[in-house]
Amino acid sequence: MYASREDIGCDFGDDSEVGSKPVKPNPNIDGGWAWMIVLSSFLVHILIMGSQMALGILNMEWLEEFSQSRGLTAWVSSLSMGITLIVGPFIGLFISMCGCRKTAIIGGILNALGWILSAYASNVHYLFLTFGVTAGIGSGMVYLPAVVMVGQYFQKRRALAQGLSTTGTGFGAFLMTALLKYLCIEFGWRNAMFIQGAISLNLCVCGALMRPLSPKDVVSEKYVERSNHEDNQAKALSHSAETIRSNGVLSEEPEKKEAATNEEVLDSVQHIEIGGKSRSGRKMYGLRILKTVSQLTVTVRKGFAIWYSSYFGAASLFTNRVFVAFIIWALFAYSSFVIPFIHLPEIVKQYNLSSQNNIFPLTSIIAIVHIFGKVILGIISDLPCISTWNVFLMANFTLVTCILTLPLMQTYVSLAVVCALIGFSSGYFSLMPVVTEDLVGTKHLANAYGIIICANGISALFGPPFAGWIYDITHKYDFSFYISGLLYMVGIIFLLIQPCIQKKQPREKSTEEAQV
Fold first, then answer.
1. Residue 498, pLDDT score
2. Which superkingdom is the protein from (predicted)?
3. Are 419 and 365 in contact (CB under 8 A)?
4. How far apart are CA 497 and CA 499, in angstroms?
5. Which of 68, 76, 227, 389 has the most crowded CB, counting CB atoms within 10 A?
6. Phi and psi of 91, rounded to 5°?
7. Is residue 437 within 8 Å of 151, Cβ to Cβ?
């Protein structure tokens, strides 16, 4: 079972001093500009995740153009999807140093550059570098800030907000599939990628909308009450919280000393600058540069300290055992969702269902139902009597069942039904940031979610090429779905076992104390 962060007490810091001074809630939390953040995140999901879900169209074009094996060609799509997520922990470092807005704008430029350069590809290996690596890194630099900003701006309706923003993936998959198909027919796949690169520049606009919260606003978030509907389940993860607290929290004294030292450096620079007003303008310019460099150094050191302590410090995220189980689940989960998107067009052609699929593509069915799945699951999870964790697990069980039964369906109607269930159950993606934030807190959301999507990226990186490799050997996709589904089930079992262990450990501890 699962409990919220407030119930668990699983915050990585001690807020007892701050708690004595209530702060007036910011009107932008759960309202106001928060909905602009949702809009920005929604558009990011359309342009990034939606485009990646539509890569099956380009994958068929690359197969015809370069005449390579399905396994090798699938690496282009896998690299793009995988690197977008794998770079998550490193993007967390960028966010710690320069914030979500700047990170997203730089990522938007890099993503557009990757699409445009890919239009001039002469072979598959060229696409590995331009589309897989360049566009993939750019996508990651926009995607993580889009998720983190929604988590910062929402407290009471966090699941609903994440659900609404991530529905952009479903809309994007539907729109981008139709768009790329039209562009490839009318202009060819090279011009289609060039046009898509121009469209991707809108990611910079989305990044500009990510207005950061001031430090006071971030503190005030802690006083916004979140529903306590999971109180009866808090014991399930109490051991994780105790483990984190026993291992220590981020030391505040070194930070204070470092801050004092940095302030002394800046004050000395400012004093020199004031005293040098009578000197030449060239010296004044040099002092301003020195001051800027000093401020930049302070920012980089603070950002790196927060990033490093989250992974390797005393309060490392890896001391939370349930979070570690969550990572193991993520390593197997995402490929089961990606494989159908990449290889369904080929499966449809293999079953001679192209005429029916052209009328209403199966990937579009997944995308449309995926939209409703995210919103509905988000609304259900925000209900007072419903556990977010239980909704998350039920959706996972439904998805893995669909993946295992998909190879048994060989008619368009049966495939459409299974694809609809895949689309709805995969709506649990909107709950992933909520579950992550409940485990580690808002302060560590960027780094923690970066780890989760990194694990998802590894899954997405090897899933489609593995499916293509199995097809090259057996000339069937059946074994690909069976193996990925079984691995997915292993990840779900880890999620089920860990809370049970957490329940037993307090009892064992009390028994030992009684014997003593």
1. 63
2. Eukaryota
3. yes
4. 6
5. 76
6. -65, -30
7. yes
Give the side-chain half-sphere CA count within 13 A for 218: 15
What's the CA gap between 101 and 210, in Å, rounded? 5
Contact 180, 57 (CB under 8 A): yes
Q: Is residue 301 within 8 Å of residue 459, measured between CB atoms?
A: no
How far is it, in rounded angstroms, from Cα 161 to Cα 20? 30
CA angle, 428 then 377 then 392, to 5°: 45
Instruction: Verify that 176 and 43 share a domain, yes or no.
Output: yes
Spell out the long-range contacts of 124-127 with Cβ–Cβ below 8 A and sequence spacing 24 or more.
Answer: 124/62, 124/66, 124/68, 124/72, 124/73, 124/75, 124/76, 127/62, 127/76
Q: In the 8-state DSSP scheme, what is residue 221?
A: G
- Distance, CA of 422 to CA of 137 (rounded, Å): 28
For 128, residues 6+ apart whose C-beta sits below 8 A from its C-beta are: 75, 76, 79
- Please, are residues 141 and 94 in contact by the beta-carbon 8 Å criterion? yes
Q: What is the pLDDT of residues 382-420, one digit of tens each?
A: 788 888 888 888 999 998 898 888 888 888 898 889 889
The pTM of this model reads 0.63
DSSP state of 431: G
**How deeply is 261 buried, as exposed, middle or buried, from its count of CB atoms within 10 A (0-12, 13-18, 19+)?**
exposed
Tokens found for residue 144:
């993580």
Per the structure, the complete domain to which residue 143 belongs is given by 28-213+301-310
Per-residue pLDDT tens over the stretch 349-363: 777 887 887 778 787
| Number of domains into which the chain is organized | 2
Contact call for residues 456 and 334 (beta carbons, < 8 A):
yes
Quick one: which of 200, 151, 101 has its CA closest to 432? 151
